[in-house]
Amino acid sequence: MHKIHVKHKSALDQTEYYDGKFQGRKEEYFDAISTSSTLYVGNLSFYTFEEQVYELFARAGDLRRVIMGLDRTTRTPCGFCFVEFYTREDAKNAMMYINGTRLDDRIIRTDWDAGFKEGRQFGRGRSGGQVRDEVRVNFDVGRGGFGKEMQRQLKQHTVQPF
Known about the structure:
Layout lengths: L25 H10 L2 E5 L7 H8 L5 E8 L6 E9 L2 H10 L4 E2 L2 E2 L1 E5 L17 H5 L12 H10 L5
Antiparallel strand pairs: 1-3, 1-6, 2-3, 4-5
């Protein structure tokens, strides 16, 4: 039996993102996205607490849980999280009304996620955090200052005292 793929979905039901680490075929990934009630939330401050995320997203509906993204090495927040709702309709409300709003003075972004699996809460960058924070060259106080690579370069060019 073949699944029927609806071509005319609303923008709220779709995603531009494809998780290259997804264990399965691309078609399976997009099938999982189409029924998911889990959101990826990005551009969080490193100083945002789980309680703040919960309070904001609970306005869209009943939450199952919030999983904060952690630096793989330091086990500290690294700017993203997963928000699981009980229903897709509640997750859709969050996509519609919370995506692009401010939390901790940062504009957050939401996207559909195929579903949280243990281990995904850790950053995928070489240094343990998010990849985007490794290559970032601007100073961002909410995300720990300069990116990891820029911090490394600055450290190399700093004169060390005797």
